Structures are given as structure tokens and as C-alpha cells.
Amino acid sequence: MHSLQLERIPVLEERLLERSPRLGLLERIAMRIGLWMLIWSVRFDRSEDDRLVNQEYLDREARELHYLQLLERNRPF
């Protein structure tokens, strides 16, 4: 049935013949590994971000402690 339809529409037959062949299993696996390696190589370095957040937290804690010590020393009562 499909061969009859292809004979009637030569443009469609040409497009199907020009289409690139389907990749094999090995090539698909290789492309997946390559894509994974590319994504892994440009990933965001979370450890640097975590260190920055931790340092900001420690700085804020130190400022709050210093402020509380100042309040304790300068109590009017």
C-alpha cells in the first residue's frame, strides 16, 4: 500500500531516500556519553557557592555577637 502511494508522489519518495540513516546503538550510546561529559564539564561549582554562603553566615553571626556585646556593655540599668 505504501509503495503505491510513493509511486504517486515522487517528491515524497525523494525526501525519504535523502533522509539520513538511523544511528546504531553504539553511536547513540556514544552521543549520550558525550553529552553527559559536556554537561558535567560546564557545571556550576557548588562547593565555591557553599563556601561563600557559609562565610556570609559566619560574618553575620560575628556582627550580631559584637552588637549584643556592645548592648551588654552599654546598658543603662
TrEMBL record:
Report the domain of life of the source organism: Bacteria
Q: What is this protein called?
A: Uncharacterized protein
Please name the source species: Tessaracoccus lubricantis
Upper classification of the source organism reads: Bacteria, Bacillati, Actinomycetota, Actinomycetes, Propionibacteriales
